[in-house]
Amino acid sequence: MITLYAMGAGFGLPELSPYVTKTEVQLMMSGLKHQKVLGNRETAPKNQLPWIDDDGERVGDSTFIRAHIERKYDLDLDAGLSTRDRAQAWAIERMIENQLGWTSGYFRFMDAANFAKGPARWFDGAPEEMRETLRQGLRDAVFANIRAVGVGRHSRGEIVWLGTLSLRALDEILGEKPYLMADHPTGVDAIAFGVLAGLLTPFFDSPLRREAERHDNLVAYVERMMDRFYPAHPWRLREAA
Ligand SMILES: N[C@@H](CCC(=O)N[C@@H](CS)C(=O)NCC(=O)O)C(=O)O
Questions:
Q1: 48 lines ligand 1 (CB under 6 A)
Q2: Right CATH number for 1-77 from 3.20.20.70, 3.60.130.10, 3.40.50.300, 3.40.30.10?
Q3: Angle, vertex CA 87, rays to CA 168 and CA 166, nearest 5
């Protein structure tokens, strides 16, 4: 039995973390029996979520988790894709994780209003005298990471511009197709969905969310993935339809 260690639902999303979403969706795609529990970074093999415990085998990082389940259970989440399509899927995934995800994260953590209504609330249960220090510590740590990858060195407007380029690229790649690489979801759709849903959730306002909302095909794509993998989740786009 596989146990997925996750952040859990929140911010209008079925799962707070785009990377946990990626693994959860890929586990659903695989058809493997699994359970999801709340995890803790301190006890995770790579000090990040997601990680899985597969019958005592601990695997950290969404990409290594996918490789593990594909190898161990003889699965291929990109079945039917050509070698060239697989190469493109890998490049798209790297763009989403290494660039778009950070620009999205910037507005979740560095925008004061978004931080206050979102991540800051994780410390509501901490002793009052420690609360602000813990909140500031999280914000500083996330900003150090965003700066280390380069995105945090740019102005807010430049970060919107960078994220917009990735959104335009995804719009072009998806076009009128139902999923990024095929007429059914493949591995890369899991992270594309996770990051785009995190950007489009109405819980947070940001200039990048408004950019994403301009792309009708990406908005419909998130709704399609939500319908397929989280049909019970009250996603606002479903309500509006
Ligand atoms: N490369 C990792 C990224 C995972 C990741 O960034 N997880 C975040 C939650 S969304 C986390 O645990 N961050 C805590 C930290 O970096 O200290 C993966 O693909 O799993």
A1: yes
A2: 3.40.30.10
A3: 15
